[in-house]
Amino acid sequence: PTIQHWIDGACSTSTPARTSPVFNPALGVATKQVALAEQAEIDAAVAAAKAAFPSWSNASVAKRQGVLFRFRELLNERKLELARIITSEHGKVVSDAAGEIQRGLEVVELATGFPHIMKGDFTENASTGVDVFSIKQALGVVGIISPFNFPAMVPMWFFPIAIAVGNTVVLKPSEKDPSAAIWLAELWKEAGLPDGVFNVLHGDKQAVDGLLNHDDVAAISFVGSTPIAQYIYETASKNGKRVQALGGAKNHMLVLPDADLDLVADQAINAGYG
After folding, report:
1. pLDDT tens, 119-143?
2. Using alpha carbons only, what angle is made at residue 22 by residues 16 and 25, rounded to the nearest 5 degrees?
3. Total structural domains in the chain?
4. Cα separation of 218 and 239, whole Å?
5. CA triplet 242, 139, 175: central angle to 5 degrees?
6. pTM, rounded to two decimals
7. Domain containing residue 195
8. Local structure of residue 53 (DSSP, 8 states)
9. Whose CA is closest to 4, among 242, 167, 161, 201?
């Protein structure tokens, strides 16, 4: 089977020009193919998000929160199903995958409280007869580029917040474990999210560059290696986009002279290879 893009509320039905194998690490064999985006798919995903932005950003806070609460309930009820999908493509054990989802769920729960966090400020008589106020508004289409090691948690660091405040999303997951992103897209649709608000674009560097250079993408969030984080920050900011680029951390630690070295060694191994 071929894992397709999720654009405007449905999986793409076109025959992909390029694909990449998706492996089950426990078996060491390719069990699926994933479509790799060409420019046409990149443009279609961004266009769907752009078209959905006006109505979603103008929807009442109550309406947006209703969708978020429903998404939270569905995810909590069915997280073991998602954990098994992650295990089948990433290789981490089901309990570890479930822990990753729980950490992502915490951000979904944070997003359900955003009606308060989105409030602006007002200062009366900041200067004589001058009042000052600030408002917080959605940016538009935001791109999310996430790594292979946490196919559910890292995207959920970003998209619940983006969607809660009225942005629309194009998620580019790792091509090594892409099915979790499609499962989440289907869950959003079941929760009542309008078509086009959440899109999934599979691909490699071509898809990444397509988002970084697209005029209709307002912001980029990324987690991955430090060299790629630097490339993404430079390229996206050069194109006038707001950027979060989180580079790779290799489980560094500071060991003090009075540390229990047996415990340190154990924790270092668990952090690096668990």
Report:
1. 999 999 999 999 999 999 999 999 9
2. 180
3. 1
4. 9
5. 65
6. 0.92
7. 2-114+137-243
8. H
9. 201
